[in-house]
Amino acid sequence: MQPLSSRTHLALLAAVVAAAMLPALVPDYYVQFAAKVLILGTLAMALNLAVGFGGLVSLCHAAFFGLAGYVLVLAAPEYDAPSLLLTLPLAVGVTVLVALVIGVLSLRTRGVYFIMVTLAFGEMLFFLFHDTPIGGGSDGLFLYVKPVLAFGETILLDLDNPVTFYLVALLMTAGCWWFIRHLLSTPFGDALTAARDNERRALALGIPVFRVRLIAFVVSAALAGLAGYLSAAQFGFVAPQMLGWHLSATALVMVVLGGTRRVAGPLAGAFVVTGLEEVLKYFIDDWKLVYGLIVIALVLVAPGGLQDLARLAGLGRRASTPALKLKEANNVG
Amino acid sequence: MSADILEARGLGKRFGGLAACSDVSLSVREGEIHAVIGPNGAGKSTLINLLSGDLRPTDGTILLDGRDVTASGPHQRCQGGIGRSYQKTTIFPERTVFDNARLAAQATRPGALAMRCDGKRRAAVREAALAALAEVGLEGRADTPARAMSHGEQRQLEVAMVLATAPRLVLLDEPLAGMGHAEARRMTGLIASLKAGRGVLLVEHDMDAVFAIADRLTVMADGKVIASGTVEAVRRDPVVRAAYLGEAEEVA
Ligand SMILES: Nc1ncnc2c1ncn2[C@@H]1O[C@H](COP(=O)(O)OP(=O)(O)OP(=O)(O)O)[C@@H](O)[C@H]1O
Ligand SMILES: [Mg+2]
């Protein structure tokens, strides 16, 4: 991608300013809904860094999302407000370490195997919190007081305030978009997409594909963790479902619906999926069945979305390297 | 006589029961074109894959500038100065010609994985990419999507990408395959010019081109080297005439 131009920056700034007006225009309920969309949109954009730009179709990103949320709740003092400055780096740091381990172990595989291995790791984390008492088991844990950013006695940011929370989520989303967009315009981004398009050629050009993918996977997990931290802070609650494959798959649906080629695409996908859920919940009692059917229909008609995913997972006919040779090539790296 | 850039000793590669390469020893010096010929399935591409690191040998060692690189991966060998082209054109078809060359130039220069944009570095990479395109005669096609080019031009682009990585050893796997007569002549001239300051290992079926530009010739059959030496000596070798050249001349 081209480096970010000042026009892109202006457009981003305008979008953020416009979005920041929302709390002045609509009731709190919608502000909270918008914050939820931003958080899930960030998760989906983070996932798409791996899926769309790295060609790494991961099914464990909810685990990173949920893990960071759990770290926030576990690290929070019971009756005091947790410090944003302490708990956020801790939550993202733990996520990074876990992603590093999962990445090192799973990035040796390709295509469907990568999907399966990441799914397995995600479920391991799910069961770690579901079946052991560390995170309150299947009931999950409450976060009684929301994180604050305090300087001495002065509270600069209190995430308990829905408007403040929304603005923080907005900032995170915009920052995330900018960061991914920037990353893709650097030599690192070139190396990542080159490895996605043709691993053999990338290696033969001197690109350390494994390292590049590992870094991208970890960065993508860190951004997912950032979103998960805010999600736990928004709802004041974490449960194992937050780490499960169901949310991973939902995030993947957002990516497919929004398109894998644009950085902001998955954000639109998050809006569609979350909005649909919201509307159906309101009008229909047994909304889940209808929701599922509509999502399937949307995914099937999404322009190019599914083909893109299949291609990225190496399932399409356009997979550029015969599996056998690829396996051989990987023995070396 | 200049030193060996690359030396392979007793290289072997088995695919299950099939010995695609066995006990292959050869060297490439700076300033020479070392051609490898042989019938289909002789193991020429396998040899290139072993030298570039795309495949790992079952036996033998590979020395690059006297250093053992047998265990290092393809990206490390590229960083060490080995550039290669593939028998089946391997480029980035969805990107422009310039972008293909740019990726190649960028990957082997300082800041290859930088997460910052740096105008100076970008300019240097751009210059190297354009120089490589100019060397193969594609400077006018910089903005064309690679997939929109003719087969011959795509082969030229692949060579430009190899050159953009600033290699000291170039491995070419049938660079003339599928090219028209004029294109092939142009490419032959280009390959001949590559040996200045570099070593070239050329796998090629086009005997006229090989005899015109090769300094040394190795003949393979069934994974083994059956003859090696100067072009003249190999041409006179009765084993070679029987096994390969005679047959080729009859066909031609
Ligand atoms: N990845 C692989 N797996 C199994 N067998 C292979 C593989 N690659 C090559 N072979 C076999 O090894 C032998 C040598 O193949 P190679 O491609 O090296 O021949 P070549 O000399 O390049 O032939 P050509 O002139 O047709 O390109 C062939 O019998 C081929 O079928
Ligand atoms: Mg071959």
How does this structure look, described?
The complex is a heterodimer of chains A (333) and B (252). Chain A is 71% helix and 4% strand. Chain A is mainly alpha-helical and 333 residues long. Chain A has one domain. In chain A, a hairpin with a 2-residue loop joins strand 2 and strand 3. In chain A, helix 4 crosses helix 10, helix 5 runs antiparallel to helix 10 and helix 12 runs antiparallel to helix 13. The longest helix of chain A is centred in the middle third of the chain and has 27 residues. The radius of gyration of chain A is 20 Å and the shape is globular. By secondary structure, chain B is of the alpha/beta class. Chain B has 2 domains: 145 residues, Rossmann fold, CATH 3.40.50; 76 residues, no CATH class. Chain B contains 9 helices and 10 strands. In chain B, the strands form 2 sheets. Chain B has a 6-stranded mixed β-sheet, with helices on both faces. A 4-stranded antiparallel β-sheet of chain B has the order 2-1-4-5, with helices on one face. In chain B, helix 6 links the parallel strand 7 and strand 8. In chain B, helix 3 crosses helix 4, helix 3 packs parallel to helix 5 and helix 4 packs across helix 5. The interface between A and B is medium-sized, with 31 and 36 residues. The complex binds adenosine-5'-triphosphate and magnesium ion (MG). The site of adenosine-5'-triphosphate has 12 residues of chain B, from strand 2 and helix 1.
